[in-house]
Design brief:
With about 525 residues, this protein is α/β, with parallel strands linked by helices. About 35% of the residues lie in helices and about 25% in strands.
């Protein structure tokens, strides 16, 4: 009996907080008893021979906002899916309130007190706010019918806990995305929630809406709620979190008090690169292009909730790198430039001539001699069941129009030309592109856009998911294109690639441009410091 008591007491630990302002830098109020509500031990997850998680230990306490950080592929989503019952771990254990548990579904996790709110609000916009909060667990009267008056009252109470006063009988779609996000949180709290997981909740919110959400998060934390906060925005981590756990390549790097971890240290740990180790790294061997013709000039290009206004230039024969952590806004700028997403501010000009701001679209971008190779070649790039020839001809034929088709001989000649020029390893142009390696599929995409003879090529993560040899070939190709006079925007999460290949680098953080580096300034330590400032 005494041993059992000691074990129970062992689940609690004292934290004395005597800060004169009543809390730490993040605003945490003093608390005497902090309970560890969740612990994972030695969590591993394997998918078809690939280990997504490798022995991850992770714990969350009541009354804290715990930020879970890491780049793409770090393992954040996999860990959350194991905690919430979407996946079963290959090895390891999960404890909730000190008791071992293994959830078979997210519903099991919710019943145990774990609620999750995702980046995309997964509610029903045509239903009322009250219906969304109570759906699946509606109050019923003695006849078994839904008690709508009780439902509205329960919804009002759930929102009042977040200091939100809205008409719960109105449809959810009549409110802003920020309010919908808060309704999703209210729904999560409508059950006996002990642990709230917020997965990228701020990605579609503006600055004021983010601050409103943080007010709600702090209120819940002060009431004793445990919150796991997943985000890519560094400023937000330091604004609201108490502790930070960093994952990298499926492994836990460490857990740190937010107030004790500098930004530059956090960036270095996320990237797996020490500033001390890289401080002597040689700067780029090539010079920035200072006097060439300005091919593209961008002034205050932005979209609310997507990326803050950004300005930069790209000159003929220049390769400009876009550097930043995941979520910094690099791909978003590319999408606005190419017209994939509409902009609500900014001006573009090519060779000094303004480009139309009305109804800017990919078709108009192609006509203006702009090409984009998007980051996910399998989703937005190649068409796997078409041949190499058909994939290469797509953009050129689209630019010519349906009534001006390329002859079979023209198609064959162009295909052969780019297969030879880019060294695409394929038996011939009639091979289905899905049968090619990842590196050769990427070359087919580059060939597609080279066939349109662009003046500006935007390459978004062109070396992701391909082997080392193919990466070197792609990098050599982009340099060759610049030497022949093309302007290139090179976006990569591999900072070493940006340093190797670019004479000028635009650095972004938290969806805004924070500066530029050029010539001898372009180095890994300088980029990391700028990201962390």
């Amino acid at each position: 009996m005494a041993e059992a008591s000691r074990l129970r007491l062992g689940k609690w630990r004292r934290r004395l907080a005597f800060a004169s302002d009543g809390g730490d830098a993040a605003g945490t109020p003093p608390s005497l008893l902090i309970m560890e509500i969740l612990r994972t031990t030695g969590i591993e997850k394997q998918f078809r021979g690939v280990k997504a998680l490798k022995g991850v230990d992770f714990s969350v306490e009541t009354g804290e906002v715990h930020a879970l950080m890491g780049e793409n592929g770090a393992g954040k989503s996999t860990l959350i899916k194991i905690i919430t019952g979407v996946y079963e771990p290959t090895a390891g254990s999960v404890q909730l309130n000190g008791a071992a548990c293994r959830f078979r579904s997210p519903l099991d996790a919710e019943r145990a007190g774990i609620s999750t709110v995702y980046q995309e609000v997964n509610l029903l916009p045509d239903l009322s706010v009250a219906e969304n909060i109570c759906i699946g667990r509606e109050p019923r009267n003695r006849l078994g019918l839904i008690d709508r008056k009780a439902m509205r009252e329960r919804a009002r109470k759930a929102l009042a806990r977040l200091d939100i006063d809205i008409d719960v009988s109105e449809s959810l779609s009549s409110y802003s995305i920020a309010v919908q996000q808060l309704v999703a949180i209210a729904r999560a709290l409508d059950v006996d929630c002990k642990l709230l997981i917020l997965d990228e909740p701020t990605s579609s919110l503006d600055e004021n809406e983010v601050n409103e959400l943080f007010t709600v998060m702090r209120k819940l934390r002060d009431e004793g709620m445990a919150i796991i906060f997943i985000t890519h925005f560094l400023d937000q981590v330091y604004a609201v979190s108490d502790r930070i756990t960093i994952l990298r390549d499926g492994q836990k790097v460490g857990t740190y008090k937010t107030a004790e971890l500098s930004r530059v240290e956090m960036v270095a740990k996320m990237l797996g690169k020490s500033l001390a180790e890289n401080s002597s790294q040689t700067v780029v061997k090539h010079d920035a292009v200072e006097n060439g013709e300005i091919v593209l000039e961008v002034t205050d290009l932005g979209r609310r909730g997507m990326v803050h206004p950004v300005s930069f230039q790209v000159r003929k024969g220049e390769q400009v790198g876009f550097a930043g952590l995941l979520g910094a806004g690099r791909s978003e700028v590319a999408q606005l430039l190419f017209g994939v997403e509409s902009r609500d501010s900014g001006r573009l000009s090519m060779h000094g001539k303004p480009l139309s701001s009305m109804f800017w679209s990919p078709r108009k971008a192609v006509k203006a001699k702009i090409a984009l190779i998007a980051e996910d070649r399998k989703v937005t790039g190649i068409i796997p069941d078409l041949t190499v020839r058909e994939n290469i001809m797509l953009a050129l034929q689209a630019s010519k129009g349906i009534w001006n088709t390329l002859s079979p001989k023209e198609q064959q000649d162009l295909t052969d030309k780019y297969i030879q020029l880019l060294g695409i390893k394929t038996p011939d142009g009639e091979q289905q592109v899905k049968n090619l390696s990842g590196g050769n599929q990427q070359k087919v995409l580059i060939a597609r856009w080279l066939a349109t003879q662009p003046d500006l090529m935007i390459l978004d993560e062109p070396t992701r998911g391909i082997d080392v040899g193919a990466k070197a070939e792609i990098e050599a190709l982009t340099k060759d294109l610049c030497e022949k006079g093309m302007a290139v925007i090179f976006i990569s999460s591999e900072l070493e690639e940006v340093v190797r290949d670019c004479g000028r680098v635009v650095v972004l953080r938290d969806r805004r441009k924070i500066g530029e580096l050029s010539g001898e300034q372009v180095s890994l330590p300088n980029i990391m410091k700028m990201i962390a400032e």
